[in-house]
Amino acid sequence: MRILAAGDHFVRPDLLRTALREELGSAPEITELTLPWPHEPFGPVGDVQEASGTEEQLAEALDGAELCVTQMAPFTEKVFTACPDLRMVAVSRGGPVNVDLAAATRHGVAVSFAPGRNAPAAAEFAIGLMLTAMRRITTADAELKRGKWRGDFYAYDEGGIELDGATVGLVGYGAIGRIVARVLRAFGSHVLVADPYADPAAARAEGVEPVELDDLLRRSSVVSLHARLTPETHHLIDAAKLELLPEGAVLVNSARGGLLDYAPLPELLRNGRLGALALDVYDIEPPPADWPLHHAPNVVTAPHLAGATRQTAHRAAAITAAEAGRFVRGEKLAHPANPEVQEAARP
């Protein structure tokens, strides 16, 4: 069997190769392709989103390959048509957004993904964003570097808030949300969660309070978004929902930009309805130079870095290689994106 390790400069081809060798031994022939992300931004390629490289480059590298492990390669209808030997694509991401699943299924190619690969990293980053926004850490740092000592931040009206004793609402209670909740409880926070797919009894057993979204927004002094972006969750937090927040609340989004309607935020920050905003994801990535939130008060921003740890890259490679191993051995995939393909292939 020939396998293509189509890595990039984060989940590198050598990490994928090492994980595959640990899983499959020396038998498969493994070739490598290095895609340009993150040195070049990902984006739409053909009929898929958040991909890196070109269809032609990928099709050439896949010549004769039956299996590919990747993070960002663009698996489009054109690529599947050009690669008739391909039987399986293992994507080392929380969702296979760079794969045309309908085309993969038509061509009989099984697709898997890697849920939870960045959960610890993303959870830690969300907590960091909360603390940074609540305590004005980046603002104070920038002012001090400009030679301004902001001792006035000690004034009562300028003071931050603590996680200890605070009510924190988590919109989404999956792998990342659960870790965030565990950390928040250690800080002494009362944690509310809104997630229609979470088991309320299990959530209570884990020390959090499951509630409806509107109730969460009304009660939380800090709100952090951790839901998946789907057609149903697009602009889940819109202008009407934002008006439910208590005055001076802190809002954090390190999940997906599409969950949040960004248009009302500058005015809510200027008039104090929103106390602070911390973002790692955006409605446009990267935000343009004239983006209104660049000039709004009390905004913390990062360039979509929540999952950027070396451990995430190693976990991604290991989860993906394990799926490749299951496929090669004829076992059921743990994280199939189109399980009907494997089912159809069974005798």
TrEMBL record:
Gene3D superfamilies: NAD(P)-binding Rossmann-like Domain (3.40.50.720). The keyword NAD applies. Keywords: NAD, Oxidoreductase. CDD domains: 2-Hacid_dh_10. Residues 52-338 form the D-isomer specific 2-hydroxyacid dehydrogenase catalytic domain. Transmembrane segments: none annotated. The keyword NAD applies. It comes from the Bacteria. Pfam families: 2-Hacid_dh, 2-Hacid_dh_C. Residues 127-306 form the D-isomer specific 2-hydroxyacid dehydrogenase NAD-binding domain. InterPro entries: D-2-hydroxyacid_DH (IPR050857), D-isomer_2_OHA_DH_cat_dom (IPR006139), D-isomer_DH_CS (IPR029753), D-isomer_DH_NAD-bd (IPR006140), NAD(P)-bd_dom_sf (IPR036291). Belongs to the D-isomer specific 2-hydroxyacid dehydrogenase family. PANTHER family: D-ISOMER SPECIFIC 2-HYDROXYACID DEHYDROGENASE FAMILY PROTEIN (AFU_ORTHOLOGUE AFUA_6G10090). This is 2-hydroxyacid dehydrogenase. It comes from Streptomyces enissocaesilis.
